[in-house]
């Protein structure tokens, strides 16, 4: 049998979790050695891990408010609630995102409206505009796989219609958009710190907002006891407290997250340089286009996607690549498990399943709209995903790996 193009095994590994070493272990131990410090309160306690992490984040990202919470889903729910979004409102989400983006909308009591993606693999600004109704209060722009979506174009639509822009940067920690960290110019944005993310503490999330009132509402919504714990809040806060969730940040997770934050530039330095190498070794494509990326210098660099001219070409390219030792399938994942990153597999949403017999939030009396869903409603998104082949770069890979991957892609393209 002839030699395969991939001669150097592609190493396994991840992003943040792949960078865990003695420093994270030491950070966890530091908290556990002083068990009385295992809770972020009482008071404004600036020596605790959660507030230290939040301050470090504000300084690094250039945002006024950062709040450590239990998960990315809960951080996104805060983004909506803190912007006054709830029952009766519609929120536009993309057809391609983890189901949590849509769940955050129903958590807040609002109704998700699903819009198409385009070749950026993020929201299609034209379809966003088409999906706006008198009930639309916000758009959640999701930055999938570390690549910021079309922020400028989506922001222009939001401004024109006077609706809030929320950014789901759960998968895009550390990404920038023309020089600024992704999210900083929106009404609120969220990170996930779960195991798969650029930096991780196993489970966790961060809610970010620049506006003082929106941030304060987020603090109220995340912990019914916040006016009691945070002394500054109980003394003359300018907004009356309201209660919603119990999703406080955890000191042990924050201790790990602080160490991981200090490794963010190292992780992205590696992935960005590897992706640049891969791109530089590609021939001019004949049968595919590259994913649209507004600002190639700012994206995280751990995901590489090509969009073949049709589904047949994608399948044949995947087969040719597999024969050369590079196994990547279509994002659509026809033969695989029902990937919850594609709206047609969000049965809880598209079949309008509700925790109550009353059918909340779709049948909420304050909701006057009439959103309808079906598994085939976003044909453009399904078509793009069925043509998209994606390769994930991790921090253990090398330039040689990138050269060989590019050679396989060049080979599959010219052999089609
Ligand atoms: C785009 C996106 N949004 C939201 C979330 C939810 O984050 P978490 O799992 O921390 O709740 C995820 C997590 O996978 C995600 O990828």
Quick summary of this structure?
This protein is of the alpha/beta class and 416 residues long. It has a domain at 17-261: Type I PLP-dependent aspartate aminotransferase-like (Major domain) (Aspartate Aminotransferase, domain 2, 3-Layer(aba) Sandwich), CATH 3.40.640.
Please describe what this structure looks like.
With 416 residues, this protein is an alpha/beta fold. The protein has a domain at 17-261: Type I PLP-dependent aspartate aminotransferase-like (Major domain) (Aspartate Aminotransferase, domain 2). The protein is built from 14 helices and 12 strands. It has helices at residues 22-32, 49-61, 72-82, 100-107, 125-131, 151-161, 212-222, 226-229, 231-234, 251-280, 311-323, 347-350, 379-387, 399-415, and strands spanning 65-69, 90-94, 111-115, 136-142, 164-168, 176-177, 180-181, 188-192, 205-209, 288-290, 303-308, 388-392. The chain has a 7-stranded mixed sheet with strand order 1-9-8-5-4-2-3, sandwiched between helices. It has a 3-stranded antiparallel sheet with strand order 10-11-12. Helix 6 links the parallel strand 4 and strand 5. Helix 2 (49-61) packs parallel to helix 10 (251-280). The longest helix is centred in the middle third of the chain and has 30 residues, at 251-280. The radius of gyration is 22 Å and the shape is globular. It starts with 21 loop residues before the first helix and ends with a helix. The mean pLDDT is 94. The structure holds pyridoxal-5'-phosphate (PLP). The site of pyridoxal-5'-phosphate has 15 residues, from helix 3 and helix 4.
